[in-house]
Specification:
Blueprint lengths: L16 H4 L20 E7 L4 E7 L4 E6 L3 H4 L8 H17 L1
Antiparallel strand pairs: 1-2, 2-3
């Protein structure tokens, strides 16, 4: 029957499939570019004078997850928004959001 035949061509509808299976190549960028890209996802941690913000960005520039002490649910549970406890809270929240996305 037709269902038993092997398809001669297979189209990958998910372009991030190889990346998720950890067998795809990481983008290297060009040699003379000022900003080198050798990652799939980049974690940026910014501790300013009054807030702590963590952001995970895909190499294409799309933001995957953001967590900050400016969010009301995080801010209400912290005494200081820039100390080690704040960084730990933001890290736990952004890791959970990355797993959910």
């Amino acid at each position: 029957s037709r269902n038993d035949e092997i398809a001669p061509r297979i189209r990958n509808r998910n372009p991030l499939n190889l990346e998720m299976m950890r067998i795809g190549r990481k983008p290297q960028g060009f040699r003379f570019e000022e900003k080198k890209i050798s990652y799939w996802n980049r974690l940026t941690l910014e501790i300013s004078g009054s807030n702590t913000t963590a952001e995970v960005t895909h190499w294409t520039g799309r933001k995957i997850a953001v967590a900050s002490t400016t969010e009301t649910s995080i801010r209400n549970q912290l005494f200081n928004k820039t100390d080690a406890a704040a960084v730990q809270a933001v890290a736990k929240i952004i890791s959970q959001r990355c797993l959910e996305s």
